[in-house]
Design goal:
Controls the rotational direction of flagella during chemotaxis. This protein is of the alpha+beta class. Helix content is about 55%, strand content about 20%.
């Protein structure tokens, strides 16, 4: 009797076991990938919700800072102020962008009605300065303080209360 010859090679059972092993690895990788995505989304939502809790713990009154003062309100005066000087026989110019800082929106709104008068006071103040003094940081700070007191006096006179806490220079150019 002749036996049937089986070609040499891996047995059929070993090939099936190898296929199942690869399938298990692929499934494990897919589960790990989905778990990583789930943890990422969960962590993001957890931290975003935690930020909302901090906002709820802040003072109940809107517009309050941590120190208890009302929040600052800024009013930018546009266009920028441009004045000219005659310095040592040469024509010189100064351009100043001004912002008003207040903590009372109603008083600031009342002052807006007097903006032409306020701008006139500031132009007269800026044009009466000495060009050489304005070239120093001390001179610029002195001008800012003078502008603040001038605006505060005008607000007290026209509105009846201190509407502006500070006058700020947001741009200052000398030429």
């Amino acid at each position: 009797m002749a036996k049937k010859q089986v070609p040499p090679g891996p047995p059929i059972a070993d090939a099936q076991d190898a296929g199942k092993g690869r399938l298990k690895i692929i499934i494990a990788i897919a589960v790990a990938f989905l778990l990583a995505i789930g943890l990422s989304i969960g962590g993001t939502l957890f931290f975003l919700d935690k930020g909302d809790d901090k906002a709820a713990e802040q003072p109940a009154e809107a517009g309050q800072t941590a120190t208890g003062k009302p929040a600052a309100i800024y009013e930018v005066l546009m266009p920028a102020f441009v004045v000219n000087f005659n310095h040592k026989g040469r024509q010189r110019y100064m351009q100043v962008s001004v912002a008003l800082m207040s903590r009372d929106q109603l008083a600031l709104d009342a002052l807006k009605g007097h903006m032409p008068l306020l701008r006139n006071h500031l132009v007269m103040l800026f044009s009466s300065q000495d060009f050489a003094a304005l070239m120093t940081p001390v001179g610029k700070e002195m001008l800012r303080q003078q502008a603040t007191s001038s605006v505060q006096e005008l607000a007290q006179k026209e509105v009846g209360k201190l509407a502006v806490e500070q006058v700020l220079f947001t741009n200052f150019v000398l030429q």
